[in-house]
Amino acid sequence: MHFSTATRQVPRFAKAGNPGEELDVTLELKLLADVGLIGFPNVGKSTLVSVVSEAKPKIANYHFTTLTPVLGVVRMGEGSSFVMADIPGLIEGAGEGVGLGHEFLRHVERCRLLLHVIDVSGSEGRDPIEDFNTINNELKVFSEELSERPQIVVGNKCDLAEEEKIEELKAYFSEKGLAFFPIMAPINEGTDELINYVAAELAKLPEIKIYEPDPIPERELIPETNRRSFTLDVLDGVYVIDNAPWLLKILETVDPEDYESLQYFQRTLQDSGIIQALVNAGVQDGDIVSVYDIEFEFVS
Questions:
Q1: Which terminus of the chain has a smaller tally of CB atoms within 10 A, N or C?
Q2: pLDDT tens digits for range 240-287
């Protein structure tokens, strides 16, 4: 059996690393959905998305909103579907960040179409028309563009409301030019008509807006003349290089006993224009050049 050996090479010279760049970034996760369900807490948004898609949000009769948006895929047949997002319930002041308003509204920004769910029965002690106007005002406070997004009004909990109230709401939204669909989400009543209408409206709308990242502004570059600036004086026949703090940092890494280190130092003098400045000043072979604590004879 034959073993080969190799000589271990230990580097004798290495340049000092330059400081890296640092910056603080804020990352935002925005859900991509075609349709966003908006409305006050406990109006039936989670129930609706659960009966028209395979999403299984936590559903309960409570006055506090869920904390996480839920996505559901609504399938309209082979090769046809759209994504619906159950946006946690908004409250008054959401447009100014009250509660988790901004966090929820950011998700709505991605939706092409909004389903505004209201409780037509007023079972929570609120007026559905007042609820509708309050939520739309919050959208406008947050984003003028968002407030102009197409909306369909969904009147849920019709089983708890008088027929006259439902007709009153239908007339109110008709005057505003908004489609109104009365439903009873828990028993899937009226949801087929709603979803078919939503799919037809989506076909008329442009695709989800693609948001490009804002470019990071380039840092103002220090001109090369300033980054590699220096002064050259001739004192008693000695060519003195001074006022070059950038060069002082390089000198701290130079080992006069190491050939590679000296080669690097020579290339630095050449690239920075110091050699050419010496030549222009009349330096001759054998003249002394002083760079801070280092003196050497000039050799062309």
A1: N
A2: 988 888 888 788 777 777 888 888 888 888 888 899 999 999 999 889
